[in-house]
Amino acid sequence: MYMKCGSVEDGSRVFRNMIERDGVSFNAMIVGYAQNGQGTEALQLFKEMLDSGEKPDHVTMIGVLCACSHAGLVEEGLQYFDSMSKRYGLKPQKDHYTCMVDLLGRAGRLVEAKNLILSMPIPPDSVVWGSLLAACKVHRDIDLGNFVAEKLLEIDPANSGPYVLLSNMYAELGRWRDVTRVRKLMKQRSVVKQPGCSWIEVGSQMNIFMVKDTRHSKKREIFTIENTH
Fold first, then answer.
1. Where do the PPR repeats lie (predicted)?
2. Which CATH class for the 107-194 domain?
């Protein structure tokens, strides 16, 4: 609970005060450290887990790979990923591949990330490809970005996300003709960008409204409250 709330020190104190620690408690701490950006601490605890005789499971390795990603430990991450099946008898699952794509993507090793996805024994989903597309945007690899966007659209043709991200990538590079081309393609394929959505409580009632939506029956009250913040 503490780790999920970001209270790393409190979580660590409770863990250290435990009389007996099992795989579940080790996993909670390793994943918690990783999610809170403390990759080094997560890997140190993983070593401690192994020294205690506890065997890692799939959850453990998600935490370990995530820790390597946040700490920028690419080679270590590759070694841990390889050790899953060879050393611990664990078959990598979709989440482990996603962690590895994130790890390689952060490091700019985009081709390796793409090849890893293509080698997956299970069909990659939009989360895996989406992680690589985000990395393509960060590293401005528009060619690979195009390839990944097409893969995403094969999975979900009506999803506006890949189009929008690709359009933004072109815009950052000043390639306005390509921006126009992508937007025309969206129109041709009848893909609609979902508008932003927000909500506010007025008189104990929750009111939901869209960006640039002025049709709400209580728009005056909503705008009045918004303008006072």
1. 22-56
2. mainly alpha
Q: How far is CA 151 from CA 38, 75, 128, 139, 218, in A?
A: 33, 27, 11, 19, 42
**Whole-prediction pTM value?**
0.75
Q: Are 34 and 67 in contact (CB under 8 A)?
A: yes
Query: Do 113 and 104 contact (CB within 8 A), yes or no?
Result: yes
Region 111-128: mean pLDDT is 95
More confident call, 190 vs 18: 190
Tell me what percent of the residues of the chain surpass a pLDDT of 70: 76
pLDDT digit string, tens, across residues 186-212:
888 887 765 544 545 444 444 445 455
Cα angle 160, 164, 168 (rounded to 5 degrees) comes to 175
- Map tokens 């025309």 to a residue: 184
| Strand residues in 138-218 grouped as ranges (E) | 197-202, 205-210
Contact 3, 31 (CB under 8 A): yes
Contact 92, 122 (CB under 8 A): no
- Alpha carbons within 13 angstroms on the beta-carbon side of residue 24 total 3
Nearest to 43 by CA among 59, 60, 55, 58: 60
Residues pairing with 209 in the sheet:
198
In the chain, what are the domain boundaries?
A: 1-92, 107-194, 196-229
CB 116, CB 142: distance < 8 Å = no
